[in-house]
Each structure stands twice: as structure tokens, then as C-alpha cells.
Amino acid sequence: MSTYLMEVARLTRVKKFINPISNYTNLTRLMEFREEEWWDGQLHESVLVYGFVRKAS
Q: Which top-level group of life is the source organism from (predicted)?
């Protein structure tokens, strides 16, 4: 479903897309997420596999 939404957003020239996913990518050192820090740091071990897939989507 996310792929479909992204494609429709692209076709309709949406300027900013917020990915509607259940999003748990808990970084071990951050208390608040900022877009520019999305890839910084390591994921918490409890969400390692799931969190990476969510970040990559």
C-alpha cells in the first residue's frame, strides 16, 4: 500500500510525502526524532530488523 501511495503522490506532484507506516525505529541515544538525524546512531536491539525495514521504506 505504501508503494501505491508514493506512486500516486509522485504522479500528482506532491511536494512532501509523509510515509504512513507504523514507525518504530527507536534510536538508542535520541529522545526526539528530527528528519536530518533519521539515519544517525544505532537502532535499539529490540527493533533491529523491523526498524531497519521501516527506515528504508
A: Archaea
